[in-house]
Amino acid sequence: MASVGSASSPLPRRRYLSLRGASWELLRPPRWHQSPLRQADPGPPHHTSFMDFVAGAIGGVCGVAVGYPLDTVKVRIQTEPKYTGIWHCIRDTYHRERVWGFYRGLSLPVCTVSLVSSVSFGTYRHCLAHICRLRYGSPDAKPAKADITLSGCASGLVRVFLTSPTEVAKVRLQTQTQTQQRRLSASGPSAVPPVCPAPPACPEPKYRGPLHCLATVAREEGLRGLYKGSSALLLRDGHSFATYFLSYAVLCECLSPAGHSHPDVLGVLVAGGCAGVLAWAVATPMDVIKSRLQADGQGQRRYRGLLHCVVTSVREEGPRVLFKGLLINCGRAFPVNMVVFVAYEAVLRLTRGLLT
Hints:
Elements: H1 13-19, H2 45-79, H3 86-97, H4 107-136, H5 145-187, H6 210-221, H7 223-226, H8 230-255, H9 265-295, H10 306-317, H11 326-355
Helix pairs in contact: 2-3, 2-4, 2-5, 2-11, 4-5, 5-6, 5-8, 8-9, 9-10, 9-11
């Protein structure tokens, strides 16, 4: 997601609606004086934070709902060598766990996405405003590409402190079925039947839900367990968010019609989707290492740290292991970020229209 600033419309509403007939134009004022990713005039100060939080929360929740099933498949492909491809993982997950298997651990990301989105975009806009003030004397000055990149990187680094525990719980819940099967198979060839004949024969899951998972990890592994893989998460989110915000700004500028400073709804969809794909393309190698470090700890530990995980994974499975899930990451990123951007923009403008 990215926050898109707008200036208040100088035209009366009735005249404006007669000039602009497209549905997207009803959601935004006719003049966009600011760059898509710059600190713009946010409207009434006492409503700004609330509206940004609501719009960011709804946009984030919509994105999670669209992309979570593929995220589960991605995590399992990255952590389970037995899967030969995306369709193999999808078929196996559906065969063993039905539709619910694709939504394991969903409740925690949905509950925390509002806070994470608020902090992410708040940090980005705050950093960008300070950089513009220091470099150009005004927070409303048009930022350079380096300013956008630096602010996006800062946003990615700050969000790690909030997302790391939820990522640990999400990955553990998404992979605990495979972990149980590995434990049983290690005890003997006859310990695991192809399909559980009756519910009592199935192993009891270690984690009963996101909160129980967090409590169990904290009790068994301490606070460090909740931040396992945070080094890889820092490396993943820092440059990926810098790529995300920068690519969105550049694409919005390229897709804006002549005489306009911002693209129409189709341009926003394309810019948001492409920005998400580019961000995940550069994030996938560290995302693989992050998932493996966070899944490690269920049973015998395999990795001693970030570097050991990278070396061991590459040695055992080759350099291609760092790009496991790249296709599904990019395929998931396009529709997710299209939904996020459109929902964010629509909610922000509708709420501003109601409050002004």
